[in-house]
Known about the structure:
Blueprint: E1 4-5, E2 10-11, E3 15-16, E4 21-22, E5 26-27, E6 32-33, E7 37-38, E8 43-44, E9 48-49, E10 54-55, E11 59-60, E12 65-66, E13 70-71, E14 76-77, E15 81-82, E16 87-88, E17 92-93, E18 98-99, E19 103-104, E20 109-110, E21 114-115, E22 120-121, E23 125-126, E24 131-132, E25 136-137, E26 142-143, E27 147-148, E28 153-154, E29 158-159, E30 163-165, E31 169-170, E32 175-176, E33 181-192, E34 197-198, E35 202-212, E36 217-218, E37 222-227, E38 230-232, E39 237-238, E40 242-246, E41 273-276, E42 285-288, E43 307-309, E44 315-316, E45 321-322, E46 329-330, E47 335-336, H1 338-345, H2 366-382, H3 386-402, H4 408-421, H5 427-449, E48 457-460, E49 473-476, H6 489-503, H7 514-542
Parallel strand pairs: 1-5, 2-6, 3-7, 4-8, 5-9, 6-10, 7-11, 8-12, 9-13, 10-14, 11-15, 12-16, 13-17, 14-18, 15-19, 16-20, 17-21, 18-22, 19-23, 20-24, 21-25, 22-26, 23-27, 24-28, 25-29, 26-30, 27-31, 28-32, 30-33, 31-33, 32-34, 33-35, 34-36, 35-37, 35-38, 36-39, 37-40, 38-41, 40-42, 42-43
Antiparallel strand pairs: 44-47, 45-46, 48-49
Amino acid sequence: MGDARFGSATFEGDARFGSATFEGDARFGSATFEGxxxxxxATFEGDARFGSATFEGRARFRLATFGxxxxxxxxxxxxxxxxxxxTFGGQARFGSATFGxxxxxxxxxxxxxxxxxLATxxxxxxFxxxxxxxxxxxxxxTFExxxxFxxxxxxxxxxxxxxTFEGDARFxxxxxxxxxxxxxxxxxxxxxxxxxxxxSPVTLSFAARRLECRRxxxxxxxxxxxxxxxVDFAHAVFEYPLTIAAEPDPFxxxxxxxxxxxxxxxxxxxxxxxxxxxxxxxxxxxxADVDLSDCLFTGTVHLDQLRLEGACTFDTAPSSxxxxxxxxxxxxxxxxxxxxxxxxxxxxxxxxxxxxxxxGAGRAGPLQLAPVYRALRKALEDGKHEPGAADFYYGEMExxxxxxxxxxxxxxxxxxxxxxxxxxxxxxxxxxxxGAAMLLTIVLLMAFGLxxxxxxxxxxxPVPAGGGKVTFEIDKDDPRxxxxxxxxxxxxxxALNVTLNSVVFRSSGQDLTTAGTYIEMTSRxxxxxxxxxxxxAVRNRVKR
Length: 544
């Protein structure tokens, strides 16, 4: 068959061209197919021109072979468009086409460029296992339903700039061989890249509610810039630097205009949240301005080499005081991992304010969380963020204190360290204990430690009758225990002087009873330690 010209033709019933071979050009431009259009499994050896054609019934091109160009620009498919297993040897041009129902391109092969720019997919867009051997151009396309690119292969550029997905965009197990950029695009649902593989340096720019990158493989450097998204990065594999960053402003398109994200108008805000890093080797990972309040860290490798840039935030401990229980509980505000929230909420008698684990979060206890806190502390210390690292040190010590395998003696030591100064990080606690110790010392000195009167000195010795050298022995009376009114202003002043000198490890020189001597010794041992803990806590909070 030579050129087949059906331009502007109207096919009132089914148009059956099954198994037909068009050796020349097949021209169906502006044709109208009121019934079903059967081109299965037709062969087009020349150009297949269906530009501006209207398919009111189902368009069946399953297993069709397009040896040259396939032109469907501005075509309208009011029912399903079936191109499954089709082979496009030349350019496949679907620019500005309208797919009113499902568009089925499963296992289709595009040997040249596939151009879908400005097309509209009103139903399900199904490109499962499709192969794009050259460029895949989906610029400014609108997907009104879910788009499936599962197991698709993109050997060339994958251009999805200014694309809008009103449903989910699923790219599970897809392969991007040389794609240099992906996006910017907007997705009102989920973008699923789980199991996908990226073979070259790539930049991803997404505004979406959720991004799933479980077991994704990155074979080169990558930058993921996001808005609104909650990211699941569990078990992702990458050997080169990879950055996940929040984009505060709308993405800028190549023409300089901002990309509208009205599809996400109901979203709470453009903040980016990380849900999981479990199973990830974080040695080359950089997080910038990411909310880590709900992130699961247990099982992450080389977490101490994680780089946190910008305003990366964590959840905090409930800071209210719970008096209606015994003993009363008060948690000081600090950065807390989501797994500690889950663990504390699962304990018997847990106080309100700790978040319960969601389904699939797993269970991690103090034994698993202590090394996680330790690694994050080192990561922040390496980043010169000492105050932030102090919170993770506090969390590490808390997990050590609550761990099941800790010896009783070590647990008691850690409990005392926590009670006295919050592991050397709570200056107010150490100062409160110091004030209590000083007050107790003053009371004990006034009651038992200060002598009743200042002992008098007596000089005795014989005087030679003929004159000469006189030798005297000077004795001092032993201090007498106090009697009568012991709590006077004078005795308070003396006790205060002794106590203040004890704080700085000095002797006051006051005359003390035997009990007072031991009280002063105890004071000189404990109070400088409490003062040192308070100074240490202040330093840990203000140093850089």
